[in-house]
């Protein structure tokens, strides 16, 4: 039995909000009997984009994370409903029956992802229904995926074993996996949102003038072991990404006869070490 | 140097002709503005305005308040689909319906007089029929019907309409084009569009700059240089007088040689309002107001549209969707401004209330926001000048052009200060126009 899954590439999402607008267009003021009551024009969007800023100028980046109902296989909302007013379809989609969930404001807090919104006009809890009413008519993709200009969002219909293989091959992750809710929404490059980077700029002296050093070898050291290695780019920049909070790293830079070792830093959030001079006799990073 | 010596030495007559052709409208340095009204002309007594959202788009736009309230302007009509900022200043508002409530016919990407041959940018020329989806809401009417009604009252209705409805005109435009030979009117209306077959190879427009690559004479229409301005071979080369890439622009060297703000050899000139000018002591933040990302100019902003809910466009705070302004965390902390709290951006020209969005993507010393808010909602705030909660940050920008003698707006040469703002400082009910404070005129350059 094949089931629906959604795959979102965090690297490709640039916050255009086309998915949000398309989903709003689909549900605002429209009744899909058995699938969804009309959603509100404003407030209570069932799909949202979260933003995370990392680093500081000049090394700064922003990641965008579209979030919506995860269509969990172990859905806390289904357990909380206690009846069949929220049901798991054979194709994996979780559907809130608009009539039978009416008045059940208590269900909003049952979702650990905050993906259920309360519609005060219709007095129903609502979540993104995977555009099941369209898929049931033969649509290949939900509106949000169809409207995505970068292909950051796509729905795939696979049996669970194939999906597991795909998730392993493409290094897909789910949100809050430790909760054991088994989401059907997967993310690629989630580190861009959830992890941190350590970066810097390497400079040196040439003919008495300071220049940015391209092609310097930079090693990321964890416990004095080399964890990763890269070369500085044309701006002298290097960046190690996907680092976990609480981990401790140092950086070693080698270029020609020069060698610099920075002090170890604990990763609290993404960090730009600033300009690291290669010519200094006792190099250290500026705090 | 690409600047042709021949122009400087031997083509005196051509220079004089050029000067005659391009006689500066406002003097060499823009100081001597033409007298208003021009000799022999009447003052403007009535303004008939079509659309109403320029508070968001024109530099130092509070000047509109002064213009609309000027005693010499006796009557203002606003013909608009939305009750946007300027409509509030009208004596008479004629509600126009939206494009969804009227018939029209057009060609995709053909913006008429704005850009010539602009439909050449699309892969296929497409004629489109704009269906009227619903009847005009409320008392609104289509622009055509409004004009027809007025002209009928003036006894000119038949001349204007020629007895045709909007749909009749669409049919007449259709019949006047070649499309009528390819598709039946009924089929065209039913389908809503018609993709024009590609023209024969020999009739197609030649590709731009192919002439340059192949060293031929130009074979596509180009406005510049004008026929008299070719310094080298007529009809050949790039759009400069010399036809070459010019490091010293001969058009400026000849046309505006003594303008210190626009030297013929392009170089950096520090701004007359910026981080190193006197304004910066009181207003230390440079405000950059770029084109909005989620609306097209004022189109689809405000008016209760869906994009109001995009938190990088507007933020809902206490029942009102505020325009977003980005601040660096350092600047925000220094001023006690929290993420998604209200912030007053201000200078001597006025104040605009925005929702602060704290982001490390903005440099310290900079406020980054968008121009083109479609909402102008002036509120009272004692001791202040214009305070807009709609988000028209152009209230704060200087009216001076980037360079004397040009028309380029200098919206990014703008210094402001930011401070936390609370709603109770102002009465959020829109002020009656009569109570509006006169806009300030300081901080001019």
**How many β-strands of chain A, per DSSP?**
18
CATH class of the largest domain in chain B: Mainly Beta
Low-pLDDT stretches of chain B: 1-32
- Number of continuous helical runs of chain A: 6
Q: What is the total domain count of chain B?
A: 3
Following the backbone from N to C, one meets helices and strands of chain A in this order, namely EHEEHEEEEHHEHEHEEEEEEEEE
Gyration radius of chain B, in Å: 26 Å
Residues in helix, % of chain A: 10-25%
Assign an overall shape of chain A. elongated
Helix amount of chain B, in percent? 10-25%
In the CATH hierarchy, the third-tier topology of the largest domain in chain A is known as: Alpha-Beta Plaits
The strand order across the widest sheet of chain B is: 7-12-9-11-10-15
Structural class of chain A: mainly beta
Overall geometry of chain B: globular
CATH domain topology of the largest domain in chain B = Barwin-like endoglucanases
Oligomeric state of the chains present here: heterodimer
Question: What percentage of the residues of chain B does DSSP assign to strands (E)?
Answer: 15-25%
The termini of chain A sit apart by: 56 Å
- Stretches with pLDDT under 50, minimum 5 residues of chain A: 282-287
User: What is the CATH first-level class name of the largest domain in chain A?
Assistant: Alpha Beta
| Number of DSSP helical runs of chain B | 11
């Amino acid at each position: 039995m094949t089931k629906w899954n959604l795959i979102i590439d965090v690297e490709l999402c640039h916050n255009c909000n086309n998915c949000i607008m398309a989903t709003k267009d689909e549900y605002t003021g429209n009744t899909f009997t058995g699938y969804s009551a009309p959603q509100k024009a404003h407030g209570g969007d069932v799909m949202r984009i979260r933003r995370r800023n990392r680093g500081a100028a000049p090394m700064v980046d922003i990641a965008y994370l579209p979030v919506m109902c995860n269509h969990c296989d172990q859905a806390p909302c289904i357990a909380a409903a206690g009846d069949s007013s929220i049901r798991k379809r054979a194709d994996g989609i979780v559907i809130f029956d608009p009539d039978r969930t009416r008045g059940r404001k208590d269900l909003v807090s049952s979702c650990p992802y905050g993906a259920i919104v309360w519609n005060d006009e219709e007095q129903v809890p609502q979540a993104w229904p995977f555009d099941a009413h369209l898929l049931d008519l033969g649509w290949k993709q939900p509106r949000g995926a169809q409207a995505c200009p970068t292909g950051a969002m796509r729905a795939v219909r696979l049996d669970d074993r194939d999906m597991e293989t795909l998730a392993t091959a493409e290094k897909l992750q789910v949100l809050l996996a430790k909760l054991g809710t088994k989401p059907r929404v997967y993310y690629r490059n989630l580190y861009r949102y959830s992890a941190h980077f350590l970066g810097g700029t390497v400079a040196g002296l040439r003919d008495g003038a300071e220049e940015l050093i391209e092609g310097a070898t930079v090693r990321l050291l964890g416990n004095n072991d080399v964890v990763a290695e890269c070369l500085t780019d044309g701006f002298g920049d290097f960046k190690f990404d996907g680092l976990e909070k609480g981990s401790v790293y140092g950086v070693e830079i080698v270029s020609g006869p020069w060698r610099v070792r920075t002090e170890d830093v604990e990763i609290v959030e993404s960090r730009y070490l600033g300009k690291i001079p290669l010519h200094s006799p006792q190099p250290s990073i500026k705090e | 140097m690409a600047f042709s010596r021949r122009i400087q030495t031997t083509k005196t007559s051509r220079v004089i002709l050029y000067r005659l052709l391009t006689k500066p409208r406002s003097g060499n340095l823009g100081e001597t503005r033409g007298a208003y009204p021009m000799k022999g002309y009447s003052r403007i007594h009535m303004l008939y305005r079509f659309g109403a959202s320029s508070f968001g788009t024109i530099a130092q736009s509070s000047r509109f308040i002064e213009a609309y309230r000027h005693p010499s302007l006796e009557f203002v009509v606003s013909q608009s689909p939305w009750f946007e900022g300027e409509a509030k200043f009208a004596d008479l508002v004629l509600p126009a319906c939206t494009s969804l409530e009227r018939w029209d016919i057009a060609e995709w990407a053909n913006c008429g007089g704005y850009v010539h041959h602009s439909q050449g940018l699309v892969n296929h020329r497409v004629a489109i029929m704009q269906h009227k989806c619903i009847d005009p809401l409320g008392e609104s009417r289509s622009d055509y019907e409004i004009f027809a009604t007025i002209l009928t009252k003036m006894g000119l209705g038949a001349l204007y309409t020629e007895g045709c409805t909007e749909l009749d005109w669409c049919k007449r435009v259709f019949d006047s084009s070649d499309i009528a030979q390819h598709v039946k009117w009924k089929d065209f209306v039913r389908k809503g569009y018609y993709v024009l077959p590609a023209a024969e190879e020999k009739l197609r427009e030649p590709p731009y700059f192919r002439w340059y690559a192949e060293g031929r004479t130009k074979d596509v229409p180009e406005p510049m240089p004008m026929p008299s301005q070719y310094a080298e071979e007529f009809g050949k080369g790039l759009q400069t007088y010399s036809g070459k890439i010019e490091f010293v622009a001969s058009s400026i060297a000849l046309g505006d040689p003594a303008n210190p703000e626009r030297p013929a050899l392009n170089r950096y000139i520090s701004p007359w309002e910026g981080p190193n000018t006197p304004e910066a002591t009181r207003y230390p933040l440079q405000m950059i107001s770029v084109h909005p990302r989620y609306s097209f100019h004022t189109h689809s902003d405000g008016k209760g549209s869906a994009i109001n809910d995009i938190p990088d466009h507007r933020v809902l705070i206490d029942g009102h969707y505020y325009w977003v302004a980005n601040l660096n965390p350092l600047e925000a902390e220094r001023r006690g401004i929290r993420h998604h709290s209200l912030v007053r951006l201000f200078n001597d020209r006025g104040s605009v209330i925005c929702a602060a969005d704290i982001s490390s993507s903005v440099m310290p010393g900079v406020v980054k926001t968008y121009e083109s808010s479609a909402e102008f909602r002036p509120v009272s705030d004692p001791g202040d000048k214009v305070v807009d909660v709609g988000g028209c940050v152009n209230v704060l920008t200087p009216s001076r052009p980037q360079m004397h003698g040009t028309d380029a707006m200098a919206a990014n040469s703008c210094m402001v200060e930011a401070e936390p703002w609370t709603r109770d400082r102002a009465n959020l009910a829109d002020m009656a126009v009569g109570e509006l404070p006169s806009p300030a005129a300081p901080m001019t350059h």
